[in-house]
Specification:
Layout lengths: L1 E7 L6 H4 L2 H8 L3 E7 L12 E2 L9 E2 L1 H11 L9 E12 L2 H7 L4 E5 L8 H6 L3 E4 L9 H12 L11 H7 L3 E4 L8 E2 L14 E2 L2 H4 L3 H11 L1 E4 L1
Parallel strand pairs: 1-2, 1-6, 5-6, 5-7
Antiparallel strand pairs: 3-4, 8-11, 9-10
Length: 233
């Protein structure tokens, strides 16, 4: 079982997300464990200060290293082999998060995620504390909470029994270097729209590709390979 430890100054952001859908079920089945930690619990002043002005000047505030250091020290499970644990910092300058990285994370036992806010986090956190700095895209967010949710979900769905029937996903990801994401259709076979949303699309009959209705599994597999995209583990 993987334990996801998320450090944030806005713990309530995760409330509804963790109480819905497959993540909720995975937690109830004890397939994953998720702990949300309020960084302010590791401050020592009466105002619970987690940020300060940047040296050298500049806009905004920078999150301090002291409370983060103390939080990591307490949260880190010393019984887990360091090779089975990762401390992750979210940063626009980090390595791009992808399916291959998520697959490696799914083999860990503890993932500690640090959610930044304001103008950023003291660089010493990345340099001396975090094992990896990652980015979920070439854009800037208000904080690391959304990247933490994305990382949690992408990694969790790779854990056997979180989605699908027991054992099927395990077989799928261990026998292959990746998988194919292909277009999906369901009933009705023919849909007649009353209006359209995209330009240059006429309001005619929208049909399911004939190959998918053929019952020929070999042809269906070829169609999926042709129209799909390979996602590497």
């Amino acid at each position: 079982m993987i334990c996801f430890d998320i450090i944030t100054i806005f713990p309530k952001i995760f409330d509804s997300y963790l109480k819905e859908s497959l993540i909720k079920k995975a937690r109830e089945k004890k397939l994953i464990q998720v702990k949300i930690h309020n960084l302010r619990n590791w401050t020592k002043d009466k105002h619970k200060t987690v940020d300060d002005r940047p040296f050298g000047g500049g806009y905004g505030m920078v999150m301090k290293i002291e409370p983060i250091f103390r939080a990591i020290k307490d949260i880190e499970n010393k019984k887990i082999d360091s090779r089975k644990r990762k401390i992750i910092l979210f940063s626009p300058r980090g390595e791009k998060f992808n399916q291959r990285m998520a697959f490696r994370f799914s083999r860990l036992e503890q993932i500690i995620m640090i959610c930044g806010r304001y103008e950023g986090i003291d660089e010493r956190v990345e340099k001396y504390i975090a094992d990896k700095s990652i980015s979920i895209g070439d854009y800037d967010l208000m904080g690391g909470e959304m990247p933490a949710m994305i990382t949690l979900e992408v990694v969790s769905r790779l854990i056997p029994e979180v989605i699908g029937k027991p054992g099927l996903l395990k077989e799928r990801i261990t026998k292959s270097k990746g998988f194919v994401e292909y277009p999906q259709y369901t009933r009705p076979e023919v849909f007649i729209p009353g209006s359209v949303f995209k330009k240059n699309v006429k309001p005619k009959k929208w049909k399911v590709p004939k190959t998918l209705l053929s019952g020929n599994h070999k042809e269906i597999e070829r169609w999926r390979q042709k129209h799909g995209k390979i996602i590497e583990n």
